[in-house]
User: Fold these one by one.
Assistant:
Number 1:
Amino acid sequence: MNIARKFAGFTLLELVITIALVAIVTGFATQSFGRWVEQSKHRTLIEHYHSVFAFARWSAASQRQLVTVCPLSLKNVCVDNWQRPISVFDDSDNDKQPDGGTVLREFPLDLDGFKLHSRTAGRGYFQFNPEGMTHGAMGSLVLCPTVTTSGNMSYMAINIAGRFRVEHDEDADGMIELSWGTKVYCSS
């Protein structure tokens, strides 16, 4: 009895089609994963800034004194460069320098893929009074992506009561229109 034996395996055409499909699926997965990583980093940064301002507000109210939030220069003076670490410090004499050179807390940042700029009329700092409300003028920060245009732009404001709020570029057009009509863009 002669039994015909068939060899199992892929033909060259089947192998090429399978490799092409795997490459296409991998391309979509990689792109989606990259977007997910960027969105996750964006959410983490927003939470980080929220904790910075919550800590500053709490410090001002619990210590019953003026607290300033800003990036510090090498000479320990507030600067409007929000790519630097953010410092929270007592500022009883309102000179925008840490009292006695003591910083309550410094928040290092990992802004890789993002840029942050302030909307503080050039002041570059935020202050909280002994009641935990803003001292002087209010302000905001704008968080912008630097590597993509995925819509991960956010407007972070501190209101007169000292509360932190965030608005996002939901339609990914690179602009956020605030409720009073002002349009906020990422600066070049």
Note: The chain has a mean pLDDT of 86.
Number 2:
Amino acid sequence: MTYERFEDLPVWKSAISLAEKIYALTEKPPFRRKYSLRDQIERAALSISNNIAEGFERGTTQELLTFLYIARGSAGEVRSMLYFIEKLDAFQGLKFEISNLKSEVEGISRQIRAWADSLQNSKIKGQRYLNEKGRLIAKNRKEKEEFLNTLTSYKR
């Protein structure tokens, strides 16, 4: 499936949902007077979806890959902070919620990794490289593949 807008990407939607949950978590009493921790985890959580969006909008596969790895790094940062706060006495009442968030961010990290792996094996250079000639070549290639698939299906 081809996505036209980053807002349609399932992994971006998951990252936005995670950021919302992190912001809800940091509203809870244990985060009061822990300003730097609160700020850091909120920024890292929001960074995941922001980097997915920025990479998507850049127009080249290589830049998208770069930003996907940055997003994955931010996911690792969120996970690391969740492990840290889980060990603090003040957060003992939030263990279940923290555990769920760790699982969620791990899932997002896996999605980003799978997408990056598929892009690394792709010959597509990105939208920025598509001029009229490139679009025509891509269209002809796609039509050829569809035609060959149709022929193959008749042979069976």
Note: The CA atoms of residues 62 and 125 lie 7 Å apart.
